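Handout, section 4.2: multi-component inputs.
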Amino acid sequence: EPEVTQTPSHQVTQMGQEVILRCVPISNHLYFYWYRQILGQKVEFLVSFYNNEISEKSEIFDDQFSVERPDGSNFTLKIRSTKLEDSAMYFCASSELGRGSSYNEQFFGPGTRLTVL
Amino acid sequence: GNSVTQMEGPVTLSEEAFLTINCTYTATGYPSLFWYVQYPGEGLQLLLKATKADDKGSNKGFEATYRKETTSFHLEKGSVQVSDSAVYFCALRRSDSWGKLQFGAGTQVVVTP
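Output:
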C-alpha cells in the first residue's frame, strides 16, 4: 500500500541553524501539507502546497519557513534559523484531491522529531 | 474562529468495554469532520469522516454522527480490543479550505486485557 515517508525520523540541531525536513508524498497525489505537534499540544497546520505554490498557510508559517518541491518526488520544509520553540514533531501529508472535494483524504507520514538545542 | 474540543485522556478501559470520546466543534458554515488515529510510532491515519449534518461515518467498528444541532461528532465503539490502544484526534476542515485540518488535542485510549 502506498505511503508517505519522511526523513530523518529524528533531527537534532543547534539554535540558529538551518534544517531541511524531507517528505516523499504518495506518487499520484497533487496536494501536499505540513503540520507540526509541539509536545503535549495540538497538531497544528502549517502550510498547504499545490501546483508549485503555497495555497494556504497559518500564522505560524512565517518568513523563517519555506517549502519546496525540488523534483517530482520530494517535498521539503526548510526552517532557516531554528529557535528553541521550533522543537516539535513535524508531519507531512498528501492528498489526491484538494479544495472543494469532500474526498480529499490526507495521508500522513510518520513524522520527523526536531529537537533544537 | 474555528476550533475543536475533545475530552482529555488518558481513557483506560478493559477489553470489550464500550468507548466514547466526546468531540465538539466551533465553525462557520458547514465543515467536514474527521477522526484520525495514531498508533505508537506511526503517523495519523484517517479512521472515519462525515461531510454533512446527520452523516454517520463508520470504520473498523467505530462510528461517529455529525450533529449540527449540538455541534458534536462523538466517537463510539461497542467493544474495544487491546489493538485499539492509540491516540484519537477529532478534526474539522472548512469547506472553503485548501485542505487545512484543525485538530483537537487528542485523546489517548489504553485498553487492557
